[in-house]
Design brief:
heterodimer; A: about 900 residues; alpha+beta; 3 domains; 6-stranded mixed β-sheet; about 15% strand; globular; B: about 240 residues; alpha/beta; Rossmann fold; 4-stranded antiparallel β-sheet; 10 strands; ABC_transporter-like_ATP-bd (chain B)
Chain lengths: ~900, ~240
């Protein structure tokens, strides 16, 4: 019987058999395609496996927080709590404060809420107290420390040792990973230091298996360095990172209801039972008013990345498509024979697709193995996480690889199935005429897609931008054949080689269009990336506020306890320190700032009333002297104000200098004088003073940390008094980072009492606004480099295919007397044709693509961010459009042999 | 001859192109091929011989007239039905490059059966039997590249007549072979026809046409003569030239 299912089975049996043999017969082509399919599959499998392994599971969280046996871990705050089931987030419920209370009382209350049969095991812990461990020259800062009764059998079971023993008095156990970092092992001595004069030596008794409960780095016995506080929580009332911690030992699970009861006592609970059997979302009070991230939000967040991945996968399909096209072309006679033996169009499609399926399955399997294997190696070798292979996503990625290869074979398969069988059997090319609808549909999709992406960008809709970009690119891909055909009609005015190349490209659109589309998509991605990168750089620069002109040394008071000002005596000490450390610093200019009377609890701030303006709304925090600065124009060159001449003249004329756009049309600016209660952090008074003002710079930024700079007259008008805010200097030699750090260390020593990492008198060096992250030239190089490689690969593919397929035509040219180099010129022109058309169209569409993403950034939040503007790097883009085709032509010229292989012409 | 007619062409015309490029490949051709009969078609290049074969196998459709294979009117069938016709009833043998290089001899012969939905085992059994009839069952696992031209043509004949297929259309099947091998291939073809198949053979070579029961002469798309078994190659040539 030969029903449809049986025929389908037979068709695919033949197709897969043919595909397998075809893949083996053409190993070079198969390898090329397989690599291009396997690479994204391997990358995806690697990333997914690594991320999955790093992701928390109930098992990993339970092991990390509770070890193998404890039922729960409790820490206490001073207020009733609500928490997420895994206790990663928690907060007060607004109930009455219930602490601090004596630890024993707290412990008794907590124990009373435990299930019958369970008991509390008390530990002391610290993580934020600045405990450092020194061993040799190495230091481990703020490790997680636990201290408790290690003779308890439950405790001994919980802390598993990789080596050695649990510590007794004068000893410490280290986690194996931290011991490796400190390069110590059992029996070595380490020094525990809280402060310079509070050091404690200890011997390493053992190495704990990672992760130990509570991710403990250091484990001490009960007679350790931590002292039991009198109360729980501590004096600050809310700090649950230091102080007592209780494990729940026993056989009875701590349920969600138990957790809720313990929350009422101010406890935050990690429960093994709750981790494995979390309550429904509606039973978690913590989520009230904090709804979990909606699907829509997640889509908005991931849509741009999804669009980029989709376009990248499209690029892969386009790059390997021509390989299948040429495979199908070379198999034309085999396909015609299959048709003669009774194969339908479906049969012929299946035969070409079969090669794609075979290569796709093989390459995806290899890519999956490599990706998962590499991730397993990395996870096991370099992390403490347990390897977790997410088979469902991995299977999906495998399927994507198969779809990539099969999708790339689809158009060649479709085209091959429509070939004129009689013509092919007679030894002629069997290509059928090209249809008009793809170019019409493609053009429409392109216009709709890019217009939609721009519109979605204006609306701040990430999904719309992503969908528009993908649809627009797909439209251009569809239209490529028609575009080549249209350009082919213009060939008559070109020289022979270019005329030949363009007409050949137009005649063999099945081969040309995918490669052209690959160049187009690559260049579109590159130019889109360049537009976005340039716009982001401009945005980053506008977001900043230089503290001074480039290379100017700035020493500013930054201690809020003193209202960020220096007394005269402190100023003298600063000058002494600076001259000691940097003898060649030159003159130190004192910088006067406006401050109100400061009594330790009241401060006065003065700023431009700039509600809604860029200065008030957007600029990010910076270091330097805390303004407003009072100046008569003398310091303008050092302060790095925009338009220094205008600013200096304005100050000399008694006008305040503000960022352009923050002054009013009548040439004045409103200075807001706000009095603050520094204890309550609340304003206690406010008045506005209008002063003559001149705006300088770009309203969008960059601003300047010293704005507003006001003359003495304006300072008097505010009713505040000038104070010393710091110093600026222009050393003969620009201060480097090492000198800055040395000076900062000296000033920290002179003005101690600050937290680690902060300063009361801070040193900074003026610099022009810089982009965040990697420098722009690097991102530009990466973008252009990757796009260039892809585009050149596509151009090379089409040139190679054209060189192979044009042999009869080239033989004819040779027969009529064409020079041997004609072949090289024609192949180079064929590569150039694809590169030129692809670059121009890709460049243009890429600008639209980049603009859509930039507009999205500008309008993504309720308040548009005007610092995001579409910046098109025309010189770089123009150079790309010239260099890329030139490279393609040169490469094709260099790799093509001028000698022509003799061609056998088949009789018709 | 009272055997049933396997192929009947009635007033068949085939016109390629249109306007100035119009070419009349066949003009009102009438032809019958019965089961157990081998008919040779001779004529100069461009006379329409290949077009005749393409129409007979449903690779092409007539501009006018009817082509009937068994009970099926080829002109009224759509592409799928014509493909089914080739799977079930018609086999082709071309001048050379008859076999799919990526498939073994056996797989080439199973091709129409598998495409028609036969199970792999049943298709292999029938194909092995078909190869045995042309004396090549021991080369079943060889790829075409590892076979001689004559062996490949015999495999093609086996494929043309595998399973229920009873009409073999041979287009210069010996054109790429030396005379000895060509004779061997013609012998196989004759044997298969004698075993009950119908054959339509296009050839330039009078010696090979002599294997046929009947010879049809074509010129400019018109049947100009038809004769029974030839007296010899020379007489056939003279007759064609005189016509």
């Amino acid at each position: 019987m030969s029903g449809p299912v049986a025929r389908w089975r037979g068709r695919w049996r033949v197709a897969l058999r043919y595909g397998w043999r075809d893949a083996r017969r053409h190993r070079g082509r198969t390898t090329l395609v397989a690599i291009m399919v396997a690479l994204p599959v391997a990358a995806g499998s690697f990333a997914t496996t690594a991320l999955w392994s790093a992701r928390d599971t109930p098992e990993t969280v339970a092991q990390r927080e509770l070890g193998p046996d404890f039922q729960a871990a409790l820490s206490v705050t001073g207020i009733p709590m609500s928490q997420t089931p895994d206790a990663t987030s928690h907060g007060g419920t607004g109930g009455a404060v219930i602490g601090p209370r004596p630890v024993a009382a707290v412990e008794a209350d907590l124990a009373a809420e435990l299930p019958d049969g369970d008991r509390l095991v008390r530990f002391l812990r610290t993580q934020d107290a600045g405990f450092d461990v020194h061993a040799g020259g190495l230091q481990l800062s703020t490790p997680a420390v636990l201290q408790g009764d290690l003779t308890d059998p439950d405790v001994r079971r919980a802390f598993r040792l990789r080596e050695g023993a649990l510590p007794s008095e004068g000893e410490v156990a280290l986690s194996a990973s931290k011991a490796r970092e400190l390069d110590v092992t059992v029996g070595d001595r380490v020094t525990l230091a809280r402060a310079e004069d509070d050091e404690l030596p200890a011997t390493v008794s053992g190495l704990l298996d990672d992760p130990a409960p509570q991710q403990t780095d250091l484990l001490f016995p009960a007679a350790g360095p931590l002292a039991l506080p009198a109360t729980a929580p501590g004096e600050d009332g809310y700090d649950d990172a230091d102080g007592p911690l209780w494990f729940v030992a026993g056989d009875v699970p701590v349920t969600w209801d138990d957790v809720l009861a313990l929350n009422e006592l101010g406890a935050v609970v990690v429960s093994r039972d709750v981790l494995f059997s979390p309550p429904p979302v509606e039973a978690v009070e913590f989520y009230d008013g904090r709804p979990p991230e909606s699907t829509s939000d997640q889509l908005q967040q991931w849509a741009p990345l999804a669009a980029v991945v989709a376009v990248a996968l499209l690029e892969v399909v386009l790059l390997i498509g021509p390989a299948f096209a040429v495979g199908a072309r070379r198999s034309a006679r085999s396909l015609a024979l299959i048709a003669a033996a009774g194969g339908t169009r479906r049969s012929l499609r299946a035969v070409v697709l079969g090669t794609g399926v075979v290569i796709g399955v093989g390459a995806s399997a290899a890519g999956t193995l490599v990706g998962v294997g590499a991730a397993a190696f990395v996870v096991v070798r370099w992390t403490d996480a347990a390897l977790a292979v997410p088979w469902a996503p991995i299977t999906s990625i495998f399927a994507v690889g198969v779809v990539l290869a099969t999708g790339a074979a689809w158009l060649p398969a479709r085209r091959a199935s429509r070939a004129d069988v009689v013509a092919v059997l007679a030894g002629r090319r069997g290509e059928t005429s090209y249809r008009r609808w793809p170019v019409v549909v493609g053009t429409a999709l392109g216009v709709v897609g890019f217009a939609g992406a721009l519109a979605a960008g204006l609306a701040g809709q990430a999904m719309g931008v992503a969908a528009g970009v993908v649809v627009g690119e797909l439209g251009l891909v569809f239209a490529c054949g028609g575009i080549v055909a249209a350009l082919g009609r213009l060939a008559r005015h070109l020289p022979l080689t270019w005329r030949f190349a363009l007409r050949d490209a137009a005649r063999h659109r099945g081969r040309t269009a995918p490669a052209l589309a690959a160049v187009l998509v690559a260049v579109a991605g590159a130019s889109g990336g360049l537009v976005y990168s340039s716009s982001q750089t401009a945005h980053d620069q506008r977001s900043q506020a230089p503290v001074a002109a480039p290379d100017v040394l700035v020493i500013g008071a930054a201690d809020p306890e003193t209202d960020s000002q220096l007394t005269r005596e402190q100023g003298d000490r600063v000058q002494d320190v600076v001259h000691d450390v940097l003898p060649d610093v030159g003159r130190l200019y004192p910088v006067t700032v406006l401050r109100g009377p400061y009594d330790g609890s009241t401060a006065t701030s003065v700023g431009v009333a700039a509600s809604g303006s860029p200065e008030g709304g957007y600029h990010e925090l910076t270091t330097g002297i805390v303004g407003p600065v009072v100046d008569d124009g003398t310091l303008v060159p050092l302060l790095g104000l925009p338009s220094p001449d205008v600013a200096a003249a304005a100050l000399a004329a008694g006008r305040a200098v503000v960022l352009a756009g923050t002054e009013d049309d009548d040439g004045t600016a409103a200075l807001d004088v706000v009095t603050w209660d520094t204890d309550a952090q609340e304003p206690t008074g406010h008045r506005s003073v209008r002063v003559p003002a001149t705006g300088v710079g770009d309203p969008l930024g960059p601003s300047n940390a010293n704005f507003p700079v006001v003359p003495a007259s304006a300072a008097q008008a505010t009713g505040t008094s000038p104070a010393l805010g710091g110093f600026v200097a222009m050393p003969g030699t620009p201060p480097g980072e090492a000198e800055r750090q040395t000076l900062q260390a000296a000033l920290d020593e002179e003005f101690p009492g600050t937290d680690v990492g902060s300063c009361t008198v801070c040193v900074s060096v003026g610099a022009d606004p810089q982009p965040y992250g990697s420098p722009q030239w690097l991102s530009t190089l990466l973008i252009l480099g990757s796009a260039g490689i892809l585009a050149l690969a596509a151009a090379w593919i089409v040139a190679a295919l054209a060189a192979t397929e044009s042999r009869p035509d080239l033989a004819t040219l040779a027969a009529v007397g064409a020079a041997p180099t004609t072949r090289k010129r024609i192949v180079a022109a064929q590569a150039g044709t694809v590169a030129v058309i692809g670059s121009v169209l890709g460049g243009a569409s890429g600008v639209a693509l980049g603009a859509a993403f930039v507009l999205f950034e500008r309008f993504r939040y309720a308040e548009p961010d005007p610092r995001w503007t579409v910046e098109v790097p025309w010189p770089v883009l123009g150079a790309t459009l010239v260099v890329l085709p030139s490279l393609a032509v040169t490469a094709a010229w260099l790799v093509t042999r001028s000698r022509l292989v003799l061609t056998r012409r088949l009789a018709s | 001859m009272n055997a049933p007619v396997m192929l009947r062409m009635t007033s068949v015309t085939r016109v390629h192109g249109q306007g100035a490029a119009e070419v009349h490949a066949l003009r009102g051709v009438d032809l019958e091929v019965r089961m157990g009969e081998l008919v040779a078609v001779m004529g100069p290049s461009g006379s329409g011989k290949s077009t005749l074969l393409n129409l007979a196998g449903g690779l092409d459709t007539p501009t006018s007239g009817t082509v009937t294979v068994g009970r099926d009117d080829v002109g009224t069938l759509d592409a799928k039905a014509r493909a089914r016709l080739r799977r079930k009833h018609v086999g082709y043998v071309f001048q050379d490059l008859n076999l799919v290089p990526a498939l073994t001899a056996l797989e080439n012969v199973t091709l129409p059966l598998e495409l028609d939905g036969s199970s792999a085992r049943r298709a292999r059994a029938k194909a092995t039997a078909a190869l045995a009839t042309v004396g090549l069952d021991d080369l079943a696992d060889r790829f075409p590249d590892d076979m001689s031209g004559g062996q490949a043509q015999r495999v093609a004949i086996a494929r043309a007549l595998v399973g229920p297929r009873r009409l073999v259309l041979a287009d210069e099947p010996t054109g790429a072979l030396d005379s000895v091998t060509g004779e061997a291939v013609m012998r196989v073809l004759r044997q298969r026809v004698d075993a009950g198949a119908a054959g339509l053979l296009v050839t330039h070579d009078a010696r090979h046409a002599a294997w046929a029961d009947r010879i049809v002469f074509l010129r400019d798309g018109v049947v100009i003569d038809s004769t029974g078994a030839a007296a010899g190659p020379d007489s056939l040539l003279h007759r064609a030239v005189r016509a």
